[in-house]
Write a structure and sequence with these properties.
Length: 359
């Protein structure tokens, strides 16, 4: 009997996709490509963490209900623990949301350019992804968004605010307008919300279609891979059925239980990044040949008049790694720089000035 060849076993939707590619780094590079926090743990927190990790029972499965982390988060957010679903990064929660709500052919919508995983995960699940372009300077195009929502009736809408990679936000009024016409869920992705100082959390109670997605990755804990969503407890209970058991490993749970209790460390670092973002922006707008877009996140998107690929390579030759977004539709010659420490940002500005001079 003739058997199908290996690639015939893979679904056509998957064959046509490109894998998510995270840039490889080297220890000698100034790493400003992944929107991480630049601040390592201070020595006293490292010690506390070491003691907590030492007590982890590796021969046992982790707590399946993530009780400690869940109750710390619930108290901080002032929501009931049943409103939370925890994920192995918020990536996993995007997947879980779509698995629980959508079937092949269902439409998922997001303004674009945006975080690439919305589209990738939707396509992997055989869903239809509809991107609605932002305006010329990446401001929300509400009339177009609303027209498309009414026409296509998406099951899930993703609104990243601040948006990655453009850095802009949706105002509360804009989100309410979208909620008013959305036939399905509106997922407000606040992965960078701490840097914008705004949240839709207070509106969860009166808006049952609203789901808020958060991540610990961008506020100093990327290595833990923990994200969470906050939703109406009725919806959260259904999502829990899709969550794989033990999705948060015991080390991550133990570490988060320690570090989430050091909110002042997280907040101080966020404030420092916000201060530095203003400095980076100040330098970028002063550089001839650079157009920088307003950002409420921990990164800044900018476009160069000289070829973005050359600028990217010249930065790399000088030891500075940023994200080259030139191949993303609508982002020709665009690069995204994560806000680092003051020293890292100074090196970036210096390297960019050199790169633009060489062109
Ligand atoms: C808007 C947005 N949402 C979600 C994520 C995923 O974050 P994580 O899976 O690390 O929690 C990212 C990561 O870059 C992002 O930019």
């Amino acid at each position: 009997m003739k058997r199908p060849c290996l690639l015939d076993l893979v679904r056509p939707e998957i064959l046509s996709l490109k894998a998510y590619r995270a840039e490889e780094s080297r220890p000698d590079l100034i790493k400003l490509d992944a929107n991480e926090s630049p601040f390592p743990l201070p020595e006293d927190l490292r010690l506390e963490l070491r003691l907590a990790l030492d007590r982890v029972d590796v021969h046992r499965y982790p707590d399946p209900h993530e009780d400690r982390v869940r109750s710390i988060l619930a108290a901080q957010l002032q929501v009931v623990p049943e409103a939370l679903v925890l994920g192995n990064g918020s990536d996993e929660l995007i997947q879980l949301l779509l698995l629980a709500t959508s079937e092949p052919g269902t439409t998922v919508l997001a303004p674009i350019p945006t975080f690439s995983m919305y589209e990738l995960i939707a396509r992997v699940q055989g869903l239809r992804f509809e991107g609605v372009p932002f305006g010329a300077r990446f401001e929300p195009d509400l009339p177009r968004l609303i027209e498309t929502i009414e026409r296509l009736r998406p099951k899930v809408i993703f609104l990243a605010t601040p948006n990655n990679p453009t850095g802009g936000v949706f105002s509360e009024a804009e989100i309410f307008k979208i909620l008013a016409v959305a036939p399905g869920l509106v997922v407000v992705d606040e992965a960078y919300g701490s840097y914008a100082g705004q949240t839709m959390l207070p509106h969860l109670v009166e808006q049952e279609r609203l789901v808020i997605l958060r991540s610990l990755s961008k506020i100093g804990l990327a290595g833990l891979r923990i994200g969470y969503l906050v939703a109406h407890p009725t919806l959260a209970a259904e999502l829990e059925k899709v969550r794989l058991p033990f999705n948060l490993n015991a080390f991550s749970q133990a570490a988060a239980a320690v570090l989430l209790n050091h909110q002042e460390w997280i907040d101080t670092n966020v404030r420092e990044v916000v201060r530095e973002r203003a400095q980076v922006m100040h330098h970028l707008v002063a550089l001839p040949g650079v157009e920088a877009f307003p950002s409420a996140a921990n990164f800044v998107l900018f476009r160069t008049t000289s070829p973005g690929n050359v600028v990217f390579d010249t930065l790399l030759q000088q030891g500075v790694l940023v994200r080259n977004l030139g191949s993303v539709p609508g982002l020709h010659n665009c690069l995204r720089v994560t806000v680092g420490t003051k020293a890292e940002n100074d090196r970036f500005v210096e390297a960019l000035t050199t790169a633009l001079r060489q062109d």
